[in-house]
Every structure is written in structure tokens, then in C-alpha cells.
Amino acid sequence: MIEVLVDGPVPERALHGDAAADLRAAEAVVLAPQQRATVGTGLRIALPAGTAALVLPRSGLAAKHGITVVNAPGLIDAGYRGEIRVTLLNTDPSASYDVAVGDRIAQLLVLPLPEVAFVPVVSLPGSARGERGFGSTGVGAGPTR
Questions:
Q1: Distance CA 125, CA 44 (A)
Q2: Is 90 annotated as a binding residue?
Q3: Considering the domain boundaries, does residue 16 fall inside one?
């Protein structure tokens, strides 16, 4: 259970079994072509210790309108108590996008966090990838530069 303070609807999953809950806009915003804006959700949460939340784009908004979350995923730490705000970006080069109060603008995914400690070592254990870098497992991938 996650305690929430809201000035609007409580986040909920669209379908039973969905991983993330929808975040809705608490204010109207017009996103001009290639413009970004931070949109309030009216939502404040108290995440349980040992968890974090990720703010993720909605695939339908991205596919149909070119609307995405700029810093995806946005990270919310368990100790944060401020309003969750979503920085949206209109990637369309020619069409504005109107965000209305109540529109689903992002998703909130809550995850458990393992306790970790970072330990300096002289070398790392081997893996199938080794030290090959970004894109090294893609089609036609060659040596990294």
C-alpha cells in the first residue's frame, strides 16, 4: 500500500495485472511543436522504505502524438514528498498538443530496491560480453571505437 495525497484522481492501473499506474495531468498545458513543459499531477506519495518509483512515458502518446517524457525514466526516491511533476516533450515538428486536466500523461512504476554496496576491486569477473561496449550485440555489430 502506498499513501497518497492527491488533488485529483488517485493513480490506478488501466487493467488488472498492469505493471504501472497512470499519472494524470492536474493542469492544462499546450505543448507547441518541439516544446517541453513540466506538468503537475497533483499527486504526492509516501513510498515504502526499500522502494523507488519510475515515471515512464505512455506508449500511445508517443506513437500517436510524439509526446514523451524528457528524462525518462524519472526517478522518485522513497524519501521524496513533493508533487510528482512530469516533464513532457512534443517531438512533433509541426503540430501542437493540448494536455487537458485529467489526461493520462505518464505511468508510475514502483519497484523494490535491493541493498547494494559498491566495493572497489582490481578486476571484474568475466562475462559473455566482456568489455565490448554499447551496441556490441546488435546486428552487424563490430568492434567498438
A1: 42
A2: no
A3: no
Alpha carbons 99 and 128: distance in angstroms, whole number: 46
Residue 119 lies in a domain: no
Q: Which domain holds residue 63?
A: 3-9+22-112
Determine if residue 71 is labeled as part of a ligand binding site: yes
* Model pTM score: 0.83
Number of structural domains, the chain? 1
Q: What CATH number is associated with residue 29?
A: 2.70.40.10
Instruction: Tell me the pLDDT tens digit for each residue of 65-96.
Output: 999 999 999 999 999 999 999 999 999 999 99
For residue 139, is it within any domain? no
**Whole-angstrom distance, CA of residue 122 vs CA of residue 88:** 42
Is residue 113 part of an annotated ligand binding site? no
Per-residue model confidence as pLDDT tens digits over 116-140: 999 999 998 988 777 777 777 776 6
Distances (CA, A) of 50 to 105, 110, 114, 116: 26, 11, 7, 11
Residue 138 annotated as lining a ligand binding site: no
